[in-house]
Amino acid sequence: MSGKDFKIHPRKQFAYDSIPPKARLEPPVPTYNDAAKNHTPNPYLNSSLTHEKILEIRSRSTVPDANANIDYSQPKDLYPESFPHFVRGRDSVREYITSLFTSQIALYDGAMGTMIQNYSKRNKLEEEEYRGDRFTDWTCNVKGNNDMLSITQPHVIKGIYKEYLEVGGSNMIGTNTFSSTTIAMADYEMEPYAYELNYIGAKLAREACDEVTAKDPSKPRFVVGALGPTNRTGSISPSVEDPAARNVTFDELVETYFEQIVGLVDGGCDILIVETIFDTLNAKCAIYAVGEFLEFSGLDIPLFVSGTLVDQSGRTLSGQTGEAFYASIRHSKPMCVGLNCALGANHMAPFVERLAKVVECFMHVYSNAGLPNAMGGYDDTPDTMAEQNEVFFKSGWLNMVGGCCGSTPPHIKRIREVASQYSPRVLPDETRPKMWLSGLEDLVVEDVHNHLGMPFLNVGERCNISGSIRFKKLMMKGDFQTAMDIAKKQVDDGAHVIDINVDDGMLDGLAAMQKFVKIAVTEPEVAKVPFMLDASKFDIVVAGMKWCQGKSIVNSISLKVGEDLFKAHAKLLKKHGAAVVVMAFDEDGQAATASEKVRICKRSYDILVNEVNFPPEDIVFDPNVLTIGTGMEEHANYGVDFINATKTIREQCPYAKISGGISNLSFGFRGVMKIRESIHSVFLHHAILESGMDVGIVNAHEMIHLDDLEPDMKVLCENLVFNKTEDATDDMLERTKYERACIDARKKNLPLPKKPRVKQVNRPRKQFAYDSLPPKARLEPPVPTYNDAAKNHTPNPYLNSSLIVNAHEMLSLDEVDPEVRLAAQNLVFNKTEDATDVMLELTKKEKAAMEARKNGGAAVEVKKTSWRDLEVKARLEHALVNGISQYVDQDVEEARHSVDKHLEVIEGPLMDGMNVVGDLFGSGKMFLPQVIKSARVMKKAVKYLLPFMEEEKIQTMIELGIDPSTVTEDDDSQYAGKVLMATVKGDVHDIGKNIVAVVLGCNNYKVYDIGVMVTCEKILEKAKEYDVDVIGLSGLITPSLDEMVDVAKEMSKQGFKTPLLIGGATTSKMHTAVKIAPNYFTLDHPAIHVLDASRSVTVVSSLLGLNKEEYVTDIMEEYDEMREDYYAGLEDRYFLTFDQAKEQKFTIDYDADPPAPTPSKVGITVIDDVSLETILPYIDWNPFFQTWELRGRYPNRGYPKIFDDEAVGSEAKKLHNDAVEMMHQIIAEKSMNIKGVVGLFPANTSDDGEDVIIYETEDDRGKENEKGKFCMLRQQAEKESNDPYLSQADFIAPKGHKDHMGMFAVSCFGCSALVDKYEDEGDDYSKIMAQALADRFVEAFAEYLHRVIRTDLWGYAPDEKLDEADLLKIKYEGIRPAPGYPSQPDHTEKIAMWEMIKCKELAGIELSESLSMMPAASVSALVFAHPKSQYFAVGQVGKDQVDDYAKRKDMEIPKMERWLSPILNYERD
With contact defined as beta carbons under 8 Å apart, do 545 and 516 qualify? Predict the structure, then answer.
């Protein structure tokens, strides 16, 4: 594929392309039946709906009244006939909504859940009320099943409906049926009640709407039947290990939605809404069910669709953009589309704007009342929410507005008042229809140009068994993950769509297609493009289509199966919203000639468009690209026939596309890709630009632009493709032999053979008007045109002395000064943007030189400008800002001679430069690595000055009669403030603290860094000694949190008035507010959490500035609110008792799903022979960039995409290069090394199932001779689902089974010595880099070692073939949780591990007093092998579990509580 930038060619235009836009009077109308098109009113006589599927659902109804009413027609004369009145059965809902939405911004309702919660605060609404009289003996808890209240507490639900109608003024209300599907109701064992829940939920809304409408018939109210997303997703795997796993199918979702729709319609709803869609595949299932119902019933029920973008990336949970979401569901012709939930209105604005630009129907929004607060509540008042929604109204984006989570009738009322001041969104004009596909991102085919500048959709062929031998082999082996790499490369190489074909007689095509698609949709780099699902069997493409959330192309259908089946296939694809490839086949066979291609395609088109109502823009004809160059005369014109047929088909079949399998064309020349791609280049150039071909299955990487063909090759290809000569095939075969010989010669390093000559075909020249001018008599010979003299016959004056020749001033190119030559070339050929400026600068200098020569002076040297030419102050500033230390000594030397006192160099140019650095860092224009480099320059400059300053200081004291030995060495009066930094007792991690210290130092703060594992006593002692202005505490492990609390308490006890800063990975603003601040926070001395280094300067400067009181007051109020929310949350949150949690534990049937086999090597293994080179492929660079506070923005998050980020990419690349350079230096010098120890032992759970017993050998297991045990913690916080309450003990089999458990500890040694070296050199950048790399080394070692355990030492996954990227995504079997982390948040369990595998004795890894591992770059883990083991977070635990846990560990309860303090759900004494 050429790297050139090619000209963008215009698309071939046809008559229908120039039809002008026209005003749209209503949204696009669905074509499930004729009712919508004809605006046929819904008769609301549901008892007349007798389709067998509808009757079957009603037959299972649990509604107590067997004769419950399902008809809702009204007398035709009930209300006046004209808008705004409405009568059911007389008027069309579609017409009414169109009139309403085009005359005002209509009002939807607000949150049902919020209103139920508000009701429960004023009234009793507990388990008993949820059950009501009807479900008193229900077998499981049902509190929280809000939909159930429609049955058990109908007055509550109807009251909420009426409040939205009467107080809020809603035009329409959504039913309380968000979770009323059999799938969602399974959580409460209420699947059989799905129909009734929907029926009653809609019936109550119907009654409320009718009662309110009767009071004011000029404002009719409508019931919107709500279909929620369910609690399962079709596009997302529930298993980290298996991307192809799903917990629900397309057909299951369609079935549950169809039942819901029947209940909603029988309950009297007017409109259906598919809402809160975070997975578009679920929405497509609901839409499919709606289509089925409308087809069976013949009714016109308008459909609304509402998506949910889960965060500021503007994407759904399943990864689609808003535009892709709409493209995926627009086939259903929804009457209104919009967004709801997840975000507040102000956060939604950019995404609503983007959607409003493309949506062809009405638009709505119902946002949350802001983002959830710390307690899960919503803080936006009605005024705030209305104000934030106003941008939608002002911009003309909406036709309907409402509220979601946190909104109430007063919110809706205030929104209504604001919306009433604005006009609704105007429907966009109806324009030329276009094919609009989608993967994770949308793609309009008519707007596409490929990498060669052609208006052509590249469909990648390499995921097609017949298009790639490698792909076929992978499919046969079942290696789907490696096959994904082929798909990714197709996208990288320029494929707009991926063709997926797994047709092979030896392969289960149905299973292979489904598995490939299910995995592919989870790979963002693949799924971002649409798919072409390609199979010879129709059921295979349908199966694949059911796993695609985007809009795909199906390849293919044709008339060869007969008209009836052809139409049935097309109707099914239309319901799924797929585009379709139609082959030029009919009952008589394949079309070969141009006329046959046109005839079959036109017939197919007429059937599809006129009888099936298939969108013409979604039809892609494949008129059969057939092989040329076979030597058979009847094949010679196939290329011409295709190109001619393409143009005619495009003319006769408006908006349809033309595609073809391009590789077929050159099949006779297989084996020589240069020949094949050259033929393709000529063929496509003419087919695309002259005839309008716009789609093709190609290998984009191998496509060649016509301009890149060798001239003789181009002639050969044109002769062959256009059948210009009888010898075209023979000539190409001769060239093919030559190219194959060249390939062989290159392989053998032999001279290339002689190229055969191309026989030129003489063709007439293109004639123009001037070519036919008649000849005329010549009166004189042709006249030269060097000047006008000859033309004018001017006499020669023969005054030769007047001739001045300037030839001596001409220069050859070699004589031109290189700098001037480069500037001239840049100027003449417009190579650089600053070419003119550079030449002007050189011109000025040359003029100055000429002037000097005129005046008898010396020539002026023409010299490049450089920052080194600047004044010394500016040079120092430049060096600091750019981190250049090369010249700092000589610049400081020069600067010190220009001042009276050496200190003035620091206080002047150096601090001025650092102030610039601070300003740039604070404003986000410099990043942390740059700041650290600046600090390195600053330290080097100061180090150079120190001897001179010391000498100057001594001399001054002697002159003043002062004995220098009596003066304190540390004079820190020149600093902006003094800060003491320490990592608290028991914690050895200091990389974050070091970074903060450097950043503060860059901003003229004196930092006293007193190290790691510093006791409380030493911290306070040094704070007094240095008389600091601020104390900063750092920590990484959870025990450090308690140590920080102790320091705060002691500071308060000793009467300190110094502000306290808290930071580190394990700390949080909430912990600081709840646990630390109450012990030490006043306006004089606050305790403040600092998130990262970039915030530290702001915090410290605010604490030491003039506005300290205002700043601290704001934080105090924020922390007070956070404490109130936290304690309120503890009251609201429910925890199971420990006994209840144990009863609902995670259970594995170890007979059906046995433990992993016995390890290859039981016992302890020391790992000390692994080199750093070995683990390099396992390095995860993402945490490295987080350490340096470099974060790319979507879509450039993570490594290596961060290098493409506009803001931080350049600096991230430099940083990575520096890291790689140091890494190789470390490896070469062996300044770091890695070592670890592994233990694999027989294991079973204890009798109560809560602990894991470890045995030395199998014999010890039989004798119950325990080596030790690991005590585990279990989840207790109540779950909204029926998920079990997990403990790590659940993943080990009980006695009677031969199970095992592993453990390991690894460290990177040598970092401390390297850090000391760089610290002595004042090189903070290299110091922090070394620490960051040590962390990466040990994490990579842990990843490598876990793989060795899986494949060798334990060997339970000997055939594992995962690459390093998959390892980092945790696609392997088993887990390796670390003690002290979420799955087992008790650091004291490390003690048991250290004793069992002798970490200190065998690997030199020690534990601190607070159980922090030493060296700091260390990792430890337990290893579980069972495939059902999983990562989880224990969360908060109750007093009953802590008491039991302490007893099992034989530890005093107060001591146990101290270690578990961060996860206690109660306050310890």
Answer: no
Whether the model clears a pTM of 0.85, i.e. scores above it, the answer is no
Residue 1234: its H or E element: strand 1233-1245
Query: In this structure, is the dihedral angle defined by the CA atoms of residues 503, 508, 510 and 516, taken in order, positive or negative?
Result: negative
**For the chain, how many residues are written?**
1469
Question: Within 10 Å of residue 107's Cβ, how many Cβ atoms?
Answer: 25
HSE of 1132 in the Cβ direction (CA atoms, 13 Å)? 13
Here the tokens at position 88 are 């059911």
pLDDT tens-digit series, residues 756-783: 887 655 566 777 778 877 888 888 899 8
Q: Please state, in angstroms and as integers, the Cα–Cα distance from residue 827 to each residue in 538, 812, 863, 1087, following that order.
A: 62, 18, 19, 61
Identity at 1143, one-letter amino acid code: E
**CA–CA separation, 1013 and 985 (whole Å):** 4
Partners of 1251 in the β-ladder: 1271
Contact 1034/1007 with Cβ under 8 angstroms? no
With H, G, I as helix, E, B as strand and everything else as coil, classify residue 984: strand
Q: What is the C-alpha to C-alpha distance for residues 551 and 328, in angstroms, rounded to an integer? A: 5
The per-residue pLDDT for range 203-225, each reduced to its tens digit, is: 999 999 999 999 999 999 999 99
Who has greater pLDDT, 309 or 820? Answer: 309
Q: Please give the pLDDT value at position 1328.
A: 87
Q: Retrieve residue 969's tokens.
A: 């060495």
- Angle between helical axes of 382-394 and 409-419 (0-180°, round to 10): 30
Give the best-scoring range by mean pLDDT among 561-565, 663-667, 815-819, 904-908: 561-565
Identify the three-state secondary structure at position 956: helix
DSSP code of 67?
T
Beta strands 400-403 and 497-500 are unpaired
**Terminal CA-CA length for the chain:** 71
**pLDDT at residue 1366 above 80?**
no
Q: How far apart are CA 33 and CA 575, in angstroms?
A: 12
Cβ neighbours for 157, distance < 8 A, ≥ 6 positions apart:
112, 149, 150, 176, 201, 204
DSSP code string of 558-588: -GGG-HHHHHHHHHHHHHHT-EEEEESEETT
Q: What burial class does residue 480 get, using C-beta atoms within 10 Å of its C-beta: 0-12 exposed, 13-18 middle, 19+ buried?
A: middle
CB-based contacts of 664-668 (< 8 A; 24+ apart in sequence): 664/625, 664/626, 664/627, 665/625, 665/626, 665/627, 665/628, 665/638, 665/639, 666/627, 666/628, 666/629, 667/627, 668/627, 668/628, 668/629, 668/630
Tokens for 113, please give them. Answer: 């859940």
Residues 6+ apart with CB under 8 A from 1149: none
Q: Name the nearest CA neighbour of 243 among 493, 3, 524.
A: 524
Q: Nearest-CA neighbor of 580 among 437, 764, 699, 710?
A: 437
Four-point Cα dihedral 380, 384, 385, 390, nearest 10: -160
Nearest alpha-carbon partner for 510 in 560, 546, 486: 546
In whole angstroms, how large is the CA radius of gyration of the chain? 39
Kindly list the catalytic residues. Answer: 987, 989, 1040
- Half-sphere exposure of residue 896: CA atoms within 13 angstroms, side-chain side: 18
Phi-psi region of 490 (alpha: psi -120 to 50; beta: other; left: phi over 0): alpha
Yes or no: say if 385 and 345 are a contact pair by the CB < 8 Å rule: yes
pLDDT beyond 80 at 920: no
Whether the link from the prior residue into 781 is cis, omega within 30° of 0, is: no
Give CA 1378 to chain center in angstroms: 27
Taking the C-alpha atoms of residue 561 and residue 386, their distance in angstroms, rounded to an integer, is 58
Structure tokens that stand for 451 in this block: 């990498």
How far is the C-alpha of 260 from the C-alpha of 303, rounded, in Å? Answer: 14
| Of 618 and 1114, the one with more pLDDT | 618
Q: Report the largest interatomic distance among the alpha carbons of the chain, rounded to a whole angstrom.
A: 129
Tell me the three state secondary structure of residue 1402. Answer: helix
Token readout for 617 is 């823009």
